[in-house]
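ENTRY TYPE: protein
WANTED: fold as tokens:
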Amino acid sequence: MCGIIGIISKKAQKNFRSDYFDPLSHALDQMTYRGPDNKGVWMEDGICLGHRRLSIIDLSSDGNQPFQSSCERYVIVFNGEIFNYQELKSDLKKLGHIFRTETDTEVILAAFNQYGADFCKVLRGMFALVIYDRKEKEVVFARDRLGKKPLFIFENEEVILFSSEIKFFHAFKNIVLELDEESLLNFLSLQYIPGPATIYKKVRQVSPGSIYKYAVGKTLGERGTYWNIFDYVGQRKELMEIEEIDSLIEKSIKYRLIANVDIGLLLSGGIDSSLLACYMNQLAGKKVKAFTVGFADKSIDESVFAKKVAAALDLDLVNLRLGDITHADFSKAIYHADQPLGDSAIIPTYLIAKSVSQHVKVVLSGEGADELFHGYDHYRYEKYFYHLGKLSYNGARALLEIISGLGVQKFDRIRNKLRSIESFKSDTGVSRWTSILSPELSCHYLSDSLKNTGNYTEQFTGFLQSFGKTSGKLESSLMLDLLTWLPDDLLVKTDRMMMACSVEARTPFLDHELVEEVVKSSSHFNTNLFQSKNFLRQLLRKKLPAAVSELIANRPKHGFETPKLHWINSSLSELSSYLFSEENLKKNPYLNSDRVLALWNDSKKQKPGTNYRLVWNIFCFLEWYRQHETKFGLK
């Protein structure tokens, strides 16, 4: 796991060293947290590749990057892990390749040499990589299938820059980064920015499962995909067997236990992490070190469940306690989030990562299980929505009002959300439940000059239509998070906060073979086994003692809740008062200062109907923008 950055010059540069090499070296120094074990730079003919290394596999200097092939034709910088590198190495040896190291990096180059543009198809893991072919003068960019590892590209008439983090483009003094108004609108609506767009106009992400090739000296590059989730949707006629799921998860975890350092587990006490604990306990060959977090607020504290799982499996449990966060904690989390991100769980995730880094370099984490096996409440809401779809909005809402009036309070949130769904102008699938506001309403909080900007709905509609070619309308909606919320919010949170503290997070539920087999069964998503992770509940009951497994399996879904309103009015009150001050808001050219100030005043008065999630989103943007104006300290 590492950080990468580089520059490809399109034209002869008179001041290449001062304009690009020196800033790149400075950015690498600021990126130390992504790879404290080594810094490396390689340069030739207007190409400069930089790397920070976090040593996980082959801890010797043989694994340092940039890494050059033995034939000296290829040079690579690579962030991530290739879990099947040993099998690939064996296959490539049979084809005549000779290896001089024990690294997975060398295996990637051999696979590229052997298979050409198809090399990513044989890689199993998480990666963002850049390969330079010195003979053909061609640069290849590639990203893993589900977007676990980040890769950003800035391009203008003069250069192509790439980096693991978008903020480091600020290190180059002759690069101007302008905010993208559409991305800002999407952020206010969703709490994240859907890729491949970014907060900056000339910066794009390499999309998950994609390759971008650029021939040095040519104006345009060539884009392609090597993996497409739509190829697998609805391909199975029969429902998956529980034994097949068991085998796929076990295989995935075996791969993710490959390392030359200790591996821990993030244990919340929920179904996903408890199941990972069972497999790790079985496969690790030694006592597993697990990490859980406890909150003083008992309503959001899950550590009691993690302790029961740890006791049942005899895990070495490290219990982390979190109280009020500080101004520094919040600002650091916003800094490391890289782009505006309103997911308040980034802050405890960052604090957890700081504690974990004192014990291990690698942890397993449960991201992806909820998206694959329908663990979130909003999947259930979407089903209710479709079942009530024969009614008008007003009729559905009236029915829910009656049900709520009878004391069935679990419908209150659905009833309230239906009120806001009326403002959506197009079908946004499950995102209608997780959105802060519809884009039409979010526009009111932007500056009047930005009102005609586009939004994410066309992109999401395209995804739904592609899913719909082989799945029903409801099943298509239930898969939407795999292409949107997962890579652009949840995996961003995990990667950035863990890497901020030099910790690698591995996500076994997102092994691409497991994902492929689950989405092949999309026509069966309405069956009971897919309801709220019943597949995983069954597995848990097989692997944990009955008393504990029933306790965990029967728990309602408990998201990573945070007391963000308490934070904003207590430990962060000084900062929030400044950021929401009329003076500061008037200086921001992107927000409607009057409407934002009115929203802030309503929240201070705890006025009924105030959208506190929107308040938090804007708070996060204001802090991000404050740091953006200082170029994140890279001036």
About this structure: The two ends are 27 Å apart (CA to CA). The chain has three domains: 2-227, 235-373+483-553, 563-635.
